[in-house]
Amino acid sequence: MWEVMNTITSKNPERINGVYVIARLVHGGETYFVFNKQYRIPTKSWTLEFPGGIQEAGESPTDAGIRELKEETGFVATEVLLSSTGRQATMPSRLNDTARHVVAEIDGDSKLNSNPKQNLDDAEMTEVVLIKASELLPTIQSLEKELDIASNVYTFAIGYAMRNL
């Protein structure tokens, strides 16, 4: 017997539940990736995740990602570099949840991003985590001792490290 959590609320097969933002911040000549440390009740743990959230009715995945990035981190995206298409299943063995990914650039030297302030929902417990791009995988491996790492974050870190193999 299989238990499946149903998270799809729209009958439109093109509709996704949410969006994740892979945000690259360039500040003072250094490149960082932007993550959220967030408490998750289902796992009773703090997790390291990409900023992201629910795509609202009438909103494009890109617009949802940029909005969520601003709400959760306070950063304003300077440019959208890439975005996935279709629907990415987040955990197809257990959920019918689907998402897309948006890759955004943040100019950390811009006045828009000089003093980022989160605008969180009441129930959100989230901290912004910046990780140097050059130290991404080792930092993730160190953080896994105290945090659960979202699978898409870990996969991204491994893929990013593989570019130098």
UniProtKB/TrEMBL annotation:
Residues 12-155 form the Nudix hydrolase domain. One of its GO terms (cellular component) is nucleus. Transmembrane segments: none annotated. The keyword Transferase does not apply. InterPro entries: NUDIX_hydrolase-like_dom_sf (IPR015797), NUDIX_hydrolase_dom (IPR000086). One of its GO terms (molecular function) is ADP-ribose diphosphatase activity. The keyword Hydrolase applies. It comes from the Eukaryota. This is Hydrolase, NUDIX family. Keywords: Hydrolase. It comes from Ancylostoma ceylanicum. GO terms for biological process: nucleoside phosphate metabolic process; ribose phosphate metabolic process.
